Amino acid sequence: MTHQFPSLSPEQKKELSDIAQRIVAPGKGILAADESTGTMGKRLQNIKVENNEENRRSFRDLLFSADASLSNSIGGVIFFHETLYQKSDGGKLFPKVIKDQGIVVGIKVDKGTAALNGTDAETTTQGLDGLSERCAQYKKDGCDFAKWRCVLKISDGCPSPLSISENANVLARYASICQQNGLVPIVEPEILPDGDHDLKRCQYVTEKVLAAVYKALSDHHVYLEGTLLKPNMVTAGHSCPTRFTPQQVAMATVTALRRTVPAAVPGICFLSGGQSEEEASVNLNAINQVPLHRPWKLTFSYGRALQASALAAWQGKAANKKAAQDAFFSRAKINGLASKGEYKPSGSADQASTQSLYTASYVY
Amino acid sequence: MTHQFPSLSEAQKRELHDTALRIVSKGKGILAADESVGSMAKRLAQVGVENTEENRRQYRQILFSADDRINCCIGGVIFFHETLYQHSDNGVPFVKMIRDRGILVGIKVDKGVVPLPGTHGETTTQGLDGLSERCMQYKKDGAAFAKWRCVLKISDTNPSNLAISDNANVLARYSSICQQHGIVPIIEPEVLSDGDHDLKRCQYVTEKVLAAVYKAMSDHHVYLEGTLLKPNMVTPGHSCPTKYSPEEVAMATVSALRRTVPPAVPGVAFLSGGQSEEEASVHLNAINNCPLAKPWIMTFSFGRALQASALRAWRGHKENEKTATEHFIKRAEVNNLACQGKYTGGDNYGESGQRVYGSCHAY
Q: Which chain A residue lies closest to B15 (C-alpha atoms)?
């Protein structure tokens, strides 16, 4: 505890820090296109498209070539392993397609959840075995960042102390290994919105989980300036009878982050969870308008909230490709604005009138 | 871990937060005048003054009778228990003198260090017994904030895991108790500068200590917006052969804090440790000019670094009182500038040249 055995040279630190800054450059966020084969199955089934390799390739191709100015709103794309080695319609490897647009390539490296015995169906996440070698290979194959998702849930007895500490520990091990191989680790401790708990409860749990995550990162000597955080927004559970405004969600979220996330972390890229495209954008926008000092970038790392309309427009048909691309590009631009607090949904109140909704008497 | 049992009402949180902000409001810092009877003995011995209650009272009076020039420099004064109940020559309670000029009164509540058996000379800090009742009384007697000092040291074997975790825990217990009584806890995990270690070593240890402190705060449900931190600056050990510039000290200090202190903490008020008055001010100034983004106010909570000249000028002689007070006012004004990054004076800086902060990736 008293002597440092430096794990990263100043050059390695600079590289990691520069990559992180590029991903969350002003007005930009992340396209999470790393759905596993199984998860893509669910998405494609919704539009009655067969879940085969060509269809998965075709849909990602559509997204990656959506528009010449995609890089104005997208700083990074997270890939699934299969996609990293697929090619565009024009025969170019997808990582190159992305990099040629000045967008950073990322890779999902976890291997899914595994049960934590003795808990109420809680999980940890596996994938540490041989991770160092895999990271080295991914770096050669064009990746500069990685993503690892842990999952926690809220219920009467959850999350348990074991779930919190075990997931924090595994995230820290993953982060440490990534950095050794020049990959910026995105740290994702997702707290599911399943349940009927209210906003306060989610805030409380989020604070405890994030405090544990950052203690673990410190214990594992992770270089914070070369990481990104991908947390849930603080929201009420799906079945909570009370409705909360975007401003309340934003205040609870920013308060929780200010209490737990060190300023050295360059950016926080929210997951969208079960939120609709519009909900995710409006909430992100409100977060960027909260009148509290926010020392990190606050942006998006969205999967469904960037792709839902595009999927629906595509229906698996080549003729619908342009419509699908337009739908995706539109969401990308909207979220780019939301990451600066500049999104004005048509028909909504202007900034001045929503500002008053922040000065609620409730102290978070 | 999953259900909250709120310990503070909204009104209590608001009071704590407002108090914390007032102490560190723009240009202001803290006068640490809470030297125990034992510490005062050392200070007074250096200027040949006998350590009596009356002399301690006279000395504090010199500081507290400074004129309105300090009102924009000092946001809070930390008292020792004895001093809280003393009066000026005119019979005005010291607490009233301070509060009447809009300065907040704080009280040192710890009861000193005790050994941690099985460690290599390490300590924890005692004072939790009956702390709740004591805080309640101090609040009635005019205190708005409190201070508790833990001490860690750097050596080949130290600080040990036990020292780090026990001191973090006791700081969190103290904070939690203070907040129940409307008292803002100043959290002081001092990493001593004794030793020959370099700047990097101090930075590393400071980061580990502060990470543990804030994890403990979270575990103990402490309301961070209603606390202040009083850390050491990150400096090399006293016997370190390498010299570092104020900018290097600043970069190391700010980097360490950025990695550990949540943005919700309103202010960081540095202790001066063994630094001279000028050294402490120059370092504080460099810290405030450091190009890394700093989400908290960074100011001072100085004892010796505000009082050394005043003490030397006084030497226990009544006729030197006014001069002594002037020396204190001068340091207060210098630190008012330093905590805004506007101090251009300094022994070693004739011209206000370009300050070279260097690359943050080396830290």
A: A363
Average model confidence (pLDDT) for chain B? 95
Tell me, what CATH number does B142's domain have? 3.20.20.70
With CB atoms and an 8 Å threshold, state whether B361 touches A211. Answer: no
pLDDT in tens, B216-238: 999 999 999 999 999 999 999 99
- Summarised one tens digit per residue, pLDDT across range B236-277 is 999 999 999 999 999 999 999 999 999 999 999 999 998 999
Look at residue A66 and tell me if it is in a domain. yes
Residue A360 lies in a domain: no
d(CA A178, nearest CA chain B) in Å:
18
Q: Which long-range contacts (CB under 8 A, 24 or more apart) does B37-41 make?
A: B37/B80, B37/B82
User: Does the residue B355 lie in any domain?
Assistant: no
Question: Is residue A147 within 8 Å of residue A190, measured between CB atoms?
Answer: no
- For residue A17, give the chain B residue with the closest CA: B361
Q: Find residues 178-197 of chain A whose CB sits inside 8 Å of chain B.
A: none
Q: Which of A207, A218, A293 sits opposite B263 (nearest CB)?
A: A293
Range of the domain at B161: 20-339
The residue type at A345? P
Catalytic residue among A35, A122, A166, A188: A188
CB contact under 8 A, A258 and B263: yes
Cβ pair B271, B230 in contact under 8 A: yes
Domain of A232: which CATH number? 3.20.20.70
Domain annotation covers residue B45: yes
Do residue B204 and residue A262 have CB atoms under 8 angstroms apart?
no
DSSP code per residue over A225-271 = GG-EE-PPP----TT-SS---HHHHHHHHHHHHHTTS-TT--EEEE-
Looking at every residue in chain A, the average pLDDT score rounds to: 94
Domain contains B350: no
Decide if B133 is inside a domain: yes
Of B164, B262, B294, the CB nearest to A1: B164
A164: contact with B, CB 8 A cutoff? yes
Residue A140 known to be catalytic:
no
Domain range spanning residue A211?
A: 14-339
As for how many domains chain B has, the answer is 1
pLDDT over 80 at A1, yes or no: no
For residue B324, give the 3-state DSSP assignment. Answer: helix
Count of the separate structural domains present in chain A: 1
Q: Is residue B188 annotated as a catalytic residue, yes or no?
A: yes
CA distance B147 to chain A (A): 21
| Cα B252 from Cα B191, distance rounded (Å) | 14
Note the pTM of the prediction, 2 decimals: 0.93
Phi/psi for A128 (5° steps) reads: -75, -25
